[in-house]
TrEMBL record:
Keyword Transcription: yes
Database matches in Pfam families: TetR_C_11, TetR_N
DNA-binding positions: 43-62
Biased composition (Polar residues): 1-13
Location of the HTH tetR-type domain: 20-80
Superkingdom of origin organism: Bacteria
Protein name in UniProt: TetR/AcrR family transcriptional regulator
GO molecular function: DNA-binding transcription factor activity; transcription cis-regulatory region binding
Keywords attached to this entry: DNA-binding, Transcription, Transcription regulation
Lineage: Bacteria, Bacillati, Actinomycetota, Actinomycetes, Propionibacteriales
Amino acid sequence: MSPTHATQAGETQSRPRVEGEREQEILDATIDILAEVGYDRLTMDAVAARAKASKATLYRRWNGKAQLVIDALISEKEPMTAPDTGSLREDLVGTFCGMGGLTDTKQIAIFGSVVTAMSRDPEFAETFRRDFIGPKKAISTELFRRAQERGELRDGLDLELIALALPGIVLHRTFLLGDPPTPELIAKVVDQLIIPAVTRG
């Protein structure tokens, strides 16, 4: 972490920045509140209180909660790990049951907390899709691309489309039907739906 740079004598002060560990404390407080109450009920006041910072400090760095939340999400997200086992089935289970995957309860709580914000704030939605969802989609697509190169997949598949099937099904069941995203559920979706749909049989 870089230390806070002191303003040199005679230097005109521009917008101060919150840096290093202090910035991370604010971002961590943002994530905690986001997971607890959701985007709509998160306020700059609440973040300032949780981080033991002044609201002025937050506004010197972020122009509002949308920008703050995006920065917090980017700093927080756990990278999905993509094992290369030589088997599409094992790659899918290992990836989506691993850190940053569908069984990561904090990641799922964060995703649920911003769904309404995405429908009302196009700028927030664009940034969230690019910086939070984009890397996960790329890893999922890569799993299917590797399987295709190994000859596991049947011909004519749209990999960009099929890569979203597993998270789409699991998240639908989680948020609409109330089924927790357990390793057992993920394995069942992989074995009964994904693998039969995409492999050569």
